[in-house]
Amino acid sequence: MLKGQGFKEQIFENQIFALFVNTFLNGTNGVSSNYKEEMAISHTNNTVTVYSGAVCIQGRFLEEESYNTEVTGTDEAYCKLVIEIDLDKVNTASNFNQGTYKIIKSTSGYPNLTQDNIVKNNAGVYQYELARFRTSVNGITNFQDRRTFLDFASIYSKITNDYETVLSQLQNELEGVKTQEGVALRSDFATVEATLSTPLSPHSGVANISYPTGFNKNNTVVVSAVPKSNNNYNFNAINKIQYVQLNDDNIYINYLDSESDVTGKVIEISIMKK
């Protein structure tokens, strides 16, 4: 059955909203850096307290309205304080059962987190770490605040900056594509055209072509040189470029046509930078 999400008279369901948010954040989890007390964490000898704030975990938001205190115990253990989302549980109108604080423990090292793909499956368990520490009869030691943060204003600014950077790069590339009196220019590649004169004989002509902007004798390599007429290129063996010479101020061409007058013929030369 096809369902509408974001349509009139249709409910925009929680799992689709979570998919949208998680996609926007590229799967990043974190505490909102500009809401209430940012879920700040403190501890005593055998308790850990999380203060007000909001966190986004896999596209789902959870809010601590005031504060929450967890008793850590005095056993010898490596501990992580986590927020656990369990989508296999069922919420009610009065009770939020799918999210809770939990202290997970191990005697041999900090335990691994359970992180099912709750966005794709809309089911399973995902744990987000707030802090880690060790417990013993002497109390909490080696306490580490493990919160990560989401600054939505900075995220928007980064998107804007990235967009402007890409746009600027495209504009620079487009700026490199120009047409200058027979020059089709693209940064390190150019095609230049010249009309032959006939100083030697009706069948032999020469031309001098100015270098395109950015090209010179020392950085230029000739890729090809062919006669051109009405957008057609003539590769007949009896028509040939005698030679192309890179001078200090121009590109010199000597062209031979054994059968016809070369006056007015157009030669196209492709060059590139070394």
Give an overview in words.
The chain has 274 residues and is mainly beta. The chain folds into 2 domains: 140 residues, Triple-stranded beta-helix, CATH 2.60.520.10; 96 residues, no CATH class. β7 and β8 form a beta hairpin. The longest helix is centred in the middle third of the chain and has 24 residues. The two termini are 61 Å apart. The mean pLDDT is 86.
Helical amount: 10-25%
The third-level CATH topology of the largest domain is: Triple-stranded beta-helix
Low confidence ranges: none
The number of distinct structural domains comes to: 2
Task: Give the SSE string.
Answer: HEEEEEEHEEEHEEEEEEEEEE
Structural class: mainly beta
What spatial form do the alpha-carbon principal axes imply? elongated
Strand order of the largest sheet: 10-11-12-19-15-16
The CATH architecture assignment of the largest domain turns out to be Sandwich
Q: Cα-atom Rg, whole angstroms?
A: 36 Å
- The first-level CATH class of the largest domain is given as Mainly Beta
Number of continuous helical runs: 3
Give keywords.
elongated; 274 residues; 2 domains; Triple-stranded beta-helix
How is this fold's topology laid out?
Layout: H1 14-24, E1 30-32, E2 41-43, E3 47-57, E4 60-71, E5 77-86, E6 99-106, H2 118-121, E7 125-135, E8 141-145, E9 149-150, H3 152-175, E10 177-179, E11 183-186, E12 189-195, E13 197-201, E14 204-210, E15 220-229, E16 232-233, E17 239-246, E18 250-257, E19 266-273
Parallel strand pairs: 1-9
Antiparallel strand pairs: 1-3, 2-3, 3-4, 5-6, 5-7, 7-8, 10-11, 11-12, 12-19, 13-14, 14-18, 15-16, 15-19, 17-18
